[in-house]
Amino acid sequence: xxxxxxxxxxEAYQRIVDGAHQxxxxxxxxxxxxxxxxxxxxxxxxxxxxxxxxxxxxxxVIPVTNYQDIQAAxxxxxSRQIKSLVFLNCGGQVDVQDLISLRDDLVVMIVxxxxxxxxxxxYWNEQVLCLDDGDVEKNMGVxxxxxxxxxxxxxxxxxxxxxxxx
Length: 166
Prior knowledge:
single chain, alpha/beta, six-stranded parallel β-sheet, about 15% strand, globular
């Protein structure tokens, strides 16, 4: 599962740090941050860039106003030196695989206050980490069951018919 509760934020950040330090060039940009242009994103970006500087992580910030901005930056993601993507207050409501081609060695972190999260981001791809402030955790079992029912075609009537036969 790729849902990250608040107790595991440090582990998620460590994946970014590890990816950056695997880079062959110390001065290269290994991280792209897609930041929406709202107040929450700007405040969060200030905190994140302080952390990136402290940990010597080369990064580039790409301001986005819509999903087309993210798709347009897709060519930069194709670069092998990019190891991590952070979506700051954007990307949570769409399947990021529809916006960006994901390589096996790429880690994607979504920090988005908009709800609902796209369930493909939460349950489908191990590369995509969705950080949550506790909202999703409350309904996790129900959400997972609904996703599996839709994705894998579980038929609710099948379990009802089995109960009727007893």
